[in-house]
Write a structure and sequence with these properties.
- This protein has two helices and 16 strands.
- By secondary structure, the chain is mainly beta.
């Protein structure tokens, strides 16, 4: 039985997107080094600090719809089969406060497959089976008041989800639940950038995330985000895989928008992007190459209670 590959690019999806500069006069900041979070433009006056202000016991609920349209080669290697089109109901919290740290559990309480009208019964069954695996999966997460991830630990249900699906899923939820905020005060038109490396199961991906504060809606910052992720030629050993997988290249570009709620554990937003991956997999002693291209869309609707 074969499964379609889903791009490595879906490993870390942001609520992201198109940069919209403010026409008001802004302050220029020197170009950043290679890694970390750096302010590019401070934006127009007045400026203020952006910080999460989560209250003890805060709970946030979200409905996240992920739609994936992938094309390309197929391989009988289940470790390359990633997250498919699903609708997830996720509960974040209740939050615990420890100084400037915010610790909370997140858990998928409902997971349903999303299929196109012309999807065959066999394909629907595969999607439904995968969606069922996700119910109850989750993690305990700790961030600081600027949204930097400090710690995370999967729960027992998540430990039984196929590694690629879990990887796609949890990194998506963690990224959506928090945006990295600059240390300095910022105003409209401000731009900051995160440069870093993701390393999971031996796969290393360089990422660049650029945030722009485009407006405020009901005193909530509206962020436009550009996201790019790139992996060069490397060999990966997924847990349980019989043979190593040679990832020749992996790239994702995405754009999106989020209305940032600094008092909630997740924010409303949407994102869309493109992915392209090249793999070489050893199968029964024979090396096989596969190229996967695809597009994805994510919609996040949020409600909270305190």
């Amino acid at each position: 039985m074969t499964k379609e590959l889903v791009s490595v690019g879906l490993l870390l999806l942001s609520v992201s997107v198109v940069v919209q500069g403010c026409k008001t006069k802004t302050t220029e900041v020197a170009a950043p080094p290679r890694a970390g979070l750096f302010l590019l433009e401070a934006g127009a006056e007045p400026r203020s600090l952006l910080r999460y202000a989560i209250e003890e016991g805060t709970t946030t609920q979200s409905t996240t719809t992920v739609r994936v349209r992938a094309t390309g080669d197929k391989l009988p290697n289940r470790f390359l089969a990633g997250l498919r089109s699903v609708e997830l109901k996720v509960v974040y919290g209740p939050a615990e406060l420890k100084g400037d740290r915010i610790r909370y559990p997140l858990q998928i309480v409902e997971s349903n497959a999303v299929s196109e009208p012309n999807t065959g019964e066999a394909a629907k069954k595969k999607l439904e089976d995968q969606a069922a695996l996700l119910r109850g999966a989750g993690a305990v997460v700790e961030i600081d008041n600027r949204g930097n991830l400090r710690n995370s630990e999967m729960n027992a249900v998540a430990a039984h989800v196929p590694v690629r699906v879990l990887w796609d899923l949890l990194t998506t939820l963690l990224t959506v639940s928090q945006v990295r905020l600059p240390e300095e005060p910022v105003g409209l038109g401000a731009r900051w950038q995160y440069l870093g490396t993701i390393a999971v199961y031996g796969l290393k991906l360089e990422q660049v995330v650029t945030y722009t504060l485009s407006e405020r809606v009901n005193d909530k910052p509206v962020l436009e985000i550009d996201f790019e992720q790139l992996g060069e030629d490397q060999v990966v050993n997924f847990p349980g895989s019989e043979a190593p997988i040679d990832v020749k290249s992996a790239r994702m570009t995405a754009t999106g928008r989020t209305v940032l709620d600094l008092k909630a554990l997740a924010s409303k937003g949407s994102t869309s992007g493109l992915v392209r991956d090249e793999f070489v997999v050893s199968e029964e002693g024979e090396a096989k190459r596969a190229v996967v291209e695809g597009a994805f869309e994510i919609q996040i609707q949020v409600g909270s209670e305190q």
